[in-house]
User: Fold these one by one.
Assistant:
Number 1:
Amino acid sequence: MTLDSKVIIPDTLFLQKVDEETILLDTVSQEYFSLNEVGSVIWEILSDKKELTLVKDEILARYEIDESQVENDILKFVEALAEKKLITID
């Protein structure tokens, strides 16, 4: 997986925002997952812009963060979501 990868979010996933946290419900496995503030921001951008490079660009535009750190964090986050089968990578 690279930042050129695209993400597919299944229709069976529901989310609810609670303050600065996002709760995801996988209706297939009936499991809940919690995203912290940064994960919630990445998810918000990811759900709108499916390409990871666009997510990186949006994060860099919003925050003063080192580009290599942003790339690394996005890839780790997306890999974790894929391992839990919350998304698929195209």
Note: The CA atoms of residues 21 and 38 lie 9 Å apart.
Number 2:
Amino acid sequence: MASSFSEAYKIILTELGDSLAKVDEEEVEHLVDRIVEKGNMFVVGAGRMGLMLHSFAMRLGHMGFGSHIVGSPTCPPIGSQDLLIVASSSGETATVREVVGRANRENAEIIAITARTDSTIAELASSVVFVEAPSTLEAGGNGGVVSQQPMKTLFEQSVLVLLESVVLCIMHRTGQGAGDMAKRHANLE
């Protein structure tokens, strides 16, 4: 356990680096491809994970993509032409699992970001981005990344940075700069 701020942030950055270094570049590239090709996305996650995805949905909107947060009052129905991006460390979060099941029945494409490729959500997904950041709530270990941070914090941080990296990749691919995105930023704040 860290006894000072400098010790704590160094632990966090090291763990984050270890986790992200193990993400498969091809899985992320596939996510970027599907976002650019689909153009209309839905995102879902529970708790703090949901907040990470809300942030990503905002950036997708800033880049001009259709971007919807599942559960928001203005969320339209999902269909076969749409992409659902879901993040769940366990891949078994009940509310998220139900949303993924419904999207699957509507023939939407589903990309799951998870620490458990053997989970229900991963099995329902069209493709998976595996993030090695196991919850400290789980007993034992698999010899991989181990976190000193509480609960699912490392997974949440890893997903946030992964998705911010996706934003940079999409900006490059679409030739957009910060100025282009700023034009789409909310002006009623």
Note: The mean pLDDT is 93.
Number 3:
Amino acid sequence: MRLNIDTVMDYQLEGPSPVLLAVEVAAIPGQDIRHSMLEILNATHRHEPGEASVGQRIWANVASDRLNLRYVADVEITRADIPLETLAQSRWQDLPGDVLSYLRPSRFCPSDQFMPFVAKRFGHLDAGAKVAAIRDWVAASITYVPGSSDAATCANDTFLSREGVCRDFAHLACTLLRAAQIPARYTSGYGPNVTPPDFHAVAEVWLSDAWHIVDPTGMCTASDLAVIATGRDASDVAFMETQAPAQPYYQNLIIRKM
């Protein structure tokens, strides 16, 4: 699938300051960036490698109190949709070193607190079938409610409130998957069917010696998500970080299938 992405951001800053961004589609297998353009007014910028060597972060040194950004990209998604149930789980001792960290609890994914629940609810399943069951449980148990969570909401809160946005769905899925001893990471991206249009969050799982996209909101699949960045949880892949509060004037994402 080919996607045309057009992102516009206009934010009020407290003054001239550095801003750390993660908005560009990553140059990774499964997606081919045919064309891209990044424009940040009144700023110089440089790139740094993203978490897990996926994508790039942008340091923007904004010379005024206003961040004005436009990012446009034409991306071909070549990643296939593979049924999770056909995928195998690696033994703990066979996992690559850079995958092991995605078994551990993190700030928004306290997986160690969910091991009894996961063992009782999903213990009769294995490998990809267990991943599919966890994805389906999150999808059925959590209601998508815009504005129902904030930057401090973690998987415990979502499990209790049973509502959230894509960030919360992804955190809870990663938490339950890690509690099941299946490596899971939090991934941001662009999807054409995300409603309302925004930066999207999904989980990725390590099965059959590769990462596979799992979206418990049901808005995206592997074949139509343009990945931006990935990490342990949202703290690793925020689309924008500032040292002082920033207030949005305008933000708009348009993602078209071509």
Note: Residues 2-78+239-257 form a domain with the Immunoglobulin-like fold (CATH 2.60.40.2250).
Number 4:
Amino acid sequence: MARRKKIYEGKAKTLYEGPEPGTLVQYFKDDATAFNAEKRDVIEGKGVLNNRLSEYFMTGLQQIGVPTHFLKRINMREQLIRAVEIIPLEVIVRNYAAGSMAKRLGMEEGTPLPRPMVEFSYKNDDLGDPLVPEEYIISFGWASQQDLDDMVALALRVNDFLSGVMYAVGIKLVDFKIEIGRLYEGDFQRLIVADEISPDSCRLWDLETNERLDKDVFRRDLGNLADAYTEVARRLGVMPTNSAPLGKPTLIN
């Protein structure tokens, strides 16, 4: 597919004008960032892995009736997606205490939570994507109460699906975040899962060893990120079991 007009460029993906109205082309970059882009690398092959993994998860969600923006994978790095209005919130689902939650509450990482917990953060890198209560979200007009109810329901369905898929291949779904978009069809609006689902947006631990298989490998200097993501792809059957890691990190000066 010929490259089209650039619509938006983020830390890990670039969006281009799609071939038809209401579509976009989503390109997965090899850039890895952490701590609001204060730490940066280029991990060769990361974009290829995330493209394939996100395709796998989005397709699986659609098969169980969860609507997503995904239409088809175009090539190794690009997907055709529906154009949606992104709600300026990250929807976080936690099954175990980890990361900022563990630090905030003084909990040991890996502590099971009594039930899946859903949090919202305001999408603003300059502010560090702060957690926000529902009262803020409604008062500032980011989403209505009905939207919030629908977002929580979507997030919990995604959690059920991802937890089962990961458990079947020996991986613990610690937590994850998704973005939700508004899709307008005439006068009708519906909410759908957008952005991506990949090890960039999930915490994934080996069930037996608690080895990290997600972006914490990069955040905490725990090893090679390409190796971790390749292991996830291998277990899920997204890559042949005899495939070698797609690349080694290249530092940005």
Note: The CA atoms of residues 2 and 19 lie 9 Å apart.
